[in-house]
Amino acid sequence: MRVLITRHASAAAKLAAILESEGFEIQLEPLLEIKFDVKPVSLKGVQALIVTSANAAAGLAQSVGERDLTTFAVGDATARALEIEGFRKVLSSAGDVTSLISLITETLKPDAGHLVHVSGEHIAGDLAGDLTAKGFAVRREVLYRAETPSVLSDAAIQSFRGRNIDVVLFFSHRTAMTFASLVVQTGLADDFASVSAICLSEACARPIRDLGWQKIKIAETPDQQALRQTLLSLRN
Fold it and tell me: Quick one: pLDDT at residue 221?
């Protein structure tokens, strides 16, 4: 089974190594390029940090020396990234903004200090607005940006036209939107009848639903391990 991974290059390479060890053939088509904007982040008067991606965790590690401040992670993958970077008080939510807000409001008091949300340039939802409505003061720090390509690679186009891709993996709404746009632009919209898509969430699947896939599968939970299990079940 040949699998196309649309994640940014560094994350895709790590996943590729895992999947290749399990017998999959892998082709990489990064639909995001991560560019960090490292800068000092003031922690004066801050009671906790909020981190909503592994890339934000990497950016935060380069921007602060403090490692003992309570840090909320949107999910376990982000929590692991923070712990690898040496953050010692990491609390992980269930992988979505709603559960993250619940964890924060159940753990913290608004009058104990403000919160810093570390993120990329593009975010889903309104985390700061929702927390502000509950009495918290939130400052957002953008520490990276994710840029999308303007075309699909020649290798990807040839693989789709040659019916050499069995499954495409999608990890974000933005990469799915980018893929759908580039597919239409390239004239590949009729080439997916024998290809399945596996998505991290329903929101991620939404932009690609009209491309005529053989199957679209949604991971049971929004994390890489669940997506990998979905891939394994599709092969079996």
Answer: 87
Residue 122: pLDDT band with limits 50, 70, 90: confident
Whole-angstrom distance, CA of residue 221 vs CA of residue 236: 20
b vs e for 124-151, b when ≥16 Cβ sit within 10 Å of the residue's Cβ? eeebbebbeeeebebeebbbbebebeee
User: What is the CATH number that goes with domain 35-146?
Assistant: 3.40.50.10090
Total-model pTM: 0.75
CB 79 within 8 A of CB 150: no
pLDDT surpassing 90 at residue 38: no
Q: Is CATH 3.40.50.10090 the classification given to domain 2-32+149-235?
A: yes
Q: List the domain boundaries for the chain.
A: 2-32+149-235, 35-146
Report CA Rg, the chain: 19
Q: Can you give the pLDDT at residue 232?
A: 96
